[in-house]
Amino acid sequence: MKSPASLKRAAEWALPYWTRGQAGRETPQDLFRVLYFGWLVAFTLKLLGSAWDVSWHFKWLRDDLAPPHLLNSAGTAIAVALTIIHGYTGYGVDKAALRLIQWGTGIFLVAVPLDLINHRVNGLDITSWSPSHIMLYLGTFFMIAGVLRGWFMGSPPGRERTVVLGAFFAFFLENVHFPEQHQEYGILSIGAWDNHATYAEQILLQFAADQMGRPVDRAMMVAFSLPVPDFLYPVYAVVVGLSVLVVARLLIGRFGAATLVAGAYVGVRTLLWPLLTFTGFPPSAVPIFLVVAGLVVDLAFLVRMPYVRAVLGSVGVTAAAYGALVAQSAIMGGVYSAIKGQKGLLGAPPLATSSAVWAGLGLLVVWLAVEWLAARRRGSQPIEARVIATATP
Questions:
Q1: pLDDT > 70 in the chain, percent
Q2: 258 contacts 291 by C-beta, under 8 angstroms
Q3: What are the pLDDT digits (tens) for 237-274?
Q4: Residue 60 carries which DSSP code?
């Protein structure tokens, strides 16, 4: 805990900057770093809270004041404070970045009470794919996009710029992949039921069964754990999740960027797996296939012609993602962990392999659009950085 003297020094440093200004204002480097490291803290809290939240809801009845919600709310509070600072002072962002951050924060804050009302009216609504939940992801999507633009446009060249940019992309990947965790937890919950080691508390199972109007049986568990079509998981992962890796590789501009962004996210999920499991919470399958697909994205960028790269990359990345998912599913069929006889973290949700064509076409459309926008940006006038170390408040 900080001492009063250190808090006083921090206030003395910060207060002179609290002046009204327009977005795009020249920002001292030390202030710029403080603002964006604040965003890193906010997104870290939100990541930890959201990761715990899914596991929590596969074990307990919903609780508005559950610890995962409080942890997520702490990250949201920091994000709201930073949004106000950017908006009032104009420091650290250009107009586009500020608008993205403000719209994202606004959508998120509107979605929170709507989600509470939704749960009051519809009961559990455990699926991650409900409209109110999607609004939460959409708000975070715009929020992180604005932060990414702000850091990309304003940070000076160097290792710190690259590392932090990669971290923000990992948070971006976590946000877009978040609804997929429903299937990743759901498939292991069904496996637990089949092995007579159900993770969910009886009160949750009974509540869900009553809501569906049927007894607590395997059919109820399947409807509870995997309420969406099998094609949704791989198609969404390829079209949306892997598009994030394509953009990350393009903006970071270094071989291995896509692999490292995917590896960072999967690494966090892998570290959280034993923490949740050994504390009695349900585990999930971990999307290791994202790392394999990220490596193929990096290899695709060895092709110099952008549109050829998009075509070849879409085919290769889709094949790699579906192949890795098939491998994970096969491992799940034969490998069991020592924990309650439950199938382990190398598993995968049900896979509709015929959907690969549509997933590949969707990724191709996005990749071509990204390459077109990148070529258009390269052809335009360069935008000068708004950050100078010698600026004063």
A1: 85
A2: no
A3: 999 999 999 999 999 999 999 999 999 999 999 988 88
A4: S
**Residue 273 contacts residue 345 (beta carbons within 8 Å):** yes
Give the DSSP letter of residue 237.
I
- Hunting for tokens 């949004």 — which residue is that? 83
pLDDT tens profile 144-184: 999 999 999 999 999 999 999 999 999 999 999 999 988 88
**Unique residue bearing structure tokens 């999920």:** 269
Distance CA 115, CA 119 (A): 6
Look at residues 321, 392, 385 and name the one whose alpha carbon lies nearest to residue 93: 385
Among 44, 31, 101, residue whose Cα is nearest residue 71 = 44
Q: Output DSSP code: residue 15.
A: G
Residues in CB range of 155: below 8 A, 6 or more apart:
32, 36, 161, 164, 165, 387
DSSP string of 33-59, one letter each residue: HHHHHHHHHHHHHHHHHHHHHHHHHTT
Instruction: Describe the chain by its helix, strand, coil percentages, rounded to 5.
Output: 70, 0, 25
Q: How far apart are CA 134 and CA 182, in angstroms?
A: 13
Q: What is the dihedral of CA 239, 244, 246, 249, to 10 degrees?
A: -170
Amino acid at 165: L
* Number of Cβ atoms within 10 Å of the Cβ of 254: 12
**What length does the chain have?**
393
Q: Which two tokens stand for residue 3?
A: 């001492």
- On whether the CB atoms of residues 387 and 25 are closer than 8 A, the answer is no
Which residue in 261, 269, 294 sits closest to 164, CA to CA?
261
Q: Are 140 and 107 in contact (CB under 8 A)?
A: no
Q: H or E element: which one contains 72?
A: helix 67-89
* % of the chain exceeding 90 in pLDDT: 51
Contact predicate 27/386, CB 8 Å? yes
- In contact, 331 and 288? CB cutoff 8 Å: no
pLDDT in tens, 183-237: 888 888 787 777 777 776 677 777 777 777 777 777 777 777 788 888 999 999 9
**Sign of dihedral through CA atoms 170, 171, 177, 180?**
positive
Give me the residues paired with residue 387 across strands. 27
